[in-house]
Design a protein that fits this description.
Length: about 300
């Protein structure tokens, strides 16, 4: 293939980008998006604060715009994210206990039901594990509703959209470390108890080095019987950038159950990482050497 989307498709994978729907009217942006990518995820528009700005009042305009763009251009859609400790609406931040638990599960049910049949994979829960050596959960208002909040969310999502793959998604899980092992143990427990989980997303917001056991870490999750996906890839600029993009791509292809890669934006100037210039296209929309490294690896 001569584009990311065709080359990935030849390997049975997708190649996706996070999209800010406000940029879908910028021709440089949308031309690259449509040429190179066959999967999209909303950078912000499907998060809790965007989809339920007031309790019980749902707003799907941004998400709908992305879904219709995807459908018109042969792209699948990753849903991101049903529950997360960040970008919660103010009303949810003010709740706790059973009121928050019920609101959270209702949010999962309503949003996953609304998009039923349109989402390839949902990030049901995002970033619930702590950084550092504990291997345990992050403290958050959701976690304080009880340790079973994650499985409750996955069960609600399955009931709402039985056809969507249900993912747990996190960062700093780029090798075998305490955090990724904590998640690994949760997934193993879910599989043993029949809690519905289909995939684990590895955000892969990377610096100037890549863990030597990046592929081995993906593989150990796949060996639990879940798909794995690279969900938010971006890499700090520097002499290693192209090498790291290429190595991540090769790692995914080497793991049979790694179903696709998503980069977290299109051009460097679209990136939340600003001066890290962390993406595959420069601010003018030109392909970088990192792009060539990915295409050559596919
Ligand atoms: C980021 C978006 O890119 C920004 O536009 C927003 O201001 C903050 O969130 N992990 C995630 C993503 O799961 O949702 C985050 O996206 C980046 C880190």
């Amino acid at each position: 293939g001569t584009t990311l989307r065709t080359a990935a498709a030849e390997k049975g994978r997708y190649f996706g980008a996070a999209v800010a729907t406000g940029k879908l009217s910028t021709s440089t942006y949308v031309n690259i998006l449509n040429r190179e990518f066959n999967s999209v995820v909303a950078e912000n528009e499907m998060k809790w604060d965007a989809t339920e700005p007031q309790q019980g009042r749902f707003s799907y305009s941004g998400g709908d715009r992305l879904v219709s763009h995807a459908q018109a251009n042969g792209m699948s859609v990753r849903g991101h994210a049903l529950l997360w400790h960040q970008q919660q609406p103010g009303w949810a931040q003010g709740l706790s206990g059973s009121a928050l638990r019920n609101a959270a599960i209702n949010h999962v049910t309503q949003v996953a039901t609304y998009y039923r049949g349109k989402i390839y994979a949902w990030d049901v829960v995002n970033e619930a594990f702590a950084d550092g050596g504990s291997g345990g959960r992050r403290d958050s208002n959701l976690q304080r509703t009880g340790n079973d909040w994650i499985e409750a969310a996955f069960r609600a999502a399955r009931a709402a959209d039985p056809g969507a793959k249900l993912c747990y998604n996190d960062y700093n899980t780029d090798g075998i470390n305490a955090k990724s092992t904590g998640i690994y143990n949760m997934v193993r427990d879910f599989k043993s108890r029949g809690v519905p989980i289909d995939c684990v997303g590895f955000q892969s917001h990377l610096g100037t080095t890549l863990a030597g056991d990046y592929q081995a870490n993906l593989q150990r999750f796949a060996d639990l019987g879940v798909d794995v996906q690279i969900t938010e890839l971006d890499v700090m600029t520097g002499s290693n950038q192209a090498n790291i993009f290429g190595a991540v791509t090769r790692a995914c292809l080497a793991v049979t159950r790694c179903t696709g890669i998503t980069v977290w934006g299109v051009r460097d100037c679209d990136s939340w990482r600003g001066s890290d210039n962390a993406l595959l296209f420069d601010c003018n929309g030109n392909k970088k050497s990192a792009y060539d490294a990915v295409l050559n690896a596919l």
